[in-house]
Design a protein that fits this description.
Layout (H helix, E strand, L loop, with lengths): L3 E2 L12 H13 L18 E6 L4 H16 L6 E7 L8 E3 L3 E4 L2 E5 L1 H7 L5 E2 L1 H4 L9 H7 L4 E7 L4 H15 L4 E6 L4 E3 L1 H16 L3 H10 L7 H10 L6 E9 L9 E10 L10
Parallel strand pairs: 1-5, 2-9, 3-8, 3-9, 4-7, 6-8
Antiparallel strand pairs: 2-12, 4-8, 5-6, 10-12, 11-12
Length: 286
């Protein structure tokens, strides 16, 4: 029986050595494409960030943009649990695959948040460790979480692209699992893939407008209508639908692309966004 997931992309998407990885993360925070400084060591006792949309490419490409969201998370009271909604790049899941184990990175092991898992584990969500074996979209978030949160506990949920009705059903389970709970939600996605920079800017702006409007149906329809190669439209749609009834405000922190790190005629687009509560979020109801 599997008791811990080993990293699949350490040494490729991010450094395999712990010290080197910590330095890599700090470089992302210090980058002019990111926050420009390391996260604060003085947290506010309140928490307003309910969710974030974050990229998942190699750290040299998307890490500084992801760091913008993680800097905001680092500045607030830590959540009781984190739910990471990831992409099924390889078609390994049957729709919505949970993991019930801790995940190891060079920085240590992030434990499974068992109470959250128990609330999520019902159809169409199911535990499927094999579906997570090769997938990177959730894994690459963990070094950042481990850097900014003390002893984080999380649940991984890999979501396969499918009809909107299927995604909405998944969102219904997520909604019931997190309502009234001190859970931080992350949707892991990159945006346009391998298009000229100006095309990426125009296409991604359409998707980002839908996210800022907090409209999951609009996002799903926009990506399909304009053939936007946003790999994480499924997890982002689920996040938006799951939180649709909460009084949140969404804002873009930054959009950028891989050409900022490595010049080329085609780029991949990245964005970091936050969904925030107008008032500080309380701890979970009992």
């Amino acid at each position: 029986m599997t008791t811990e997931r080993s990293p699949a992309v350490a040494g490729s998407f991010y450094a395999a050595d712990a010290a080197e990885l910590a330095g890599q993360i700090e470089s992302c925070f210090r980058s002019e494409r990111g926050p420009g400084a390391l996260p604060t060591r003085h947290r506010r006792p309140e928490r307003t960030v309910r969710a974030a949309v974050v990229p998942h490419a190699g750290f040299e490409y998307s890490g500084p943009i992801a760091a913008l969201a993680y800097a905001a998370i680092a500045a607030e009271r830590p959540p009781e649990a984190v739910l990471i909604l990831g992409v099924d790049h390889y078609g390994e899941s049957r729709g919505a695959a949970l993991s019930a184990v801790g995940w190891r990175t060079p920085l240590g092991t992030t434990a499974c948040a068992r109470p959250l898992l128990q609330r999520l584990e019902r159809p169409p969500l199911e535990v499927d460790e094999a579906a997570h074996a090769r997938e990177h979209s959730i894994e690459v978030q963990l070094p950042f979480l481990e850097y900014v949160l003390p002893r984080p506990a999380f649940v991984a949920l890999e979501i396969r692209f499918g009809p909107f009705a299927d995604l909405d059903r998944i969102a219904g389970v997520v909604r019931e699992a997190v309502v009234g709970r001190d859970v931080l939600l992350l949707a892991s996605t990159d945006f346009s893939h391998y298009v000229p920079p100006e095309v990426a800017r125009q296409q991604d702006a359409r998707a980002i407008e839908a996210i800022v409007a907090r409209d999951g149906r609009r996002l799903y329809d926009t990506v399909r209508a304009h053939d936007i190669s946003m790999c994480g439209v499924a997890p982002t749609t689920v996040l938006l639908r799951a939180l649709a009834d909460e009084p949140l405000t969404a804002r873009l922190l930054r959009w950028g692309h891989s050409g900022e790190a490595s010049r080329g005629p085609e780029v991949v687009g990245y964005a970091a966004l936050l969904l925030e509560s107008p008032l500080p979020r309380p701890p979970s109801v009992k």
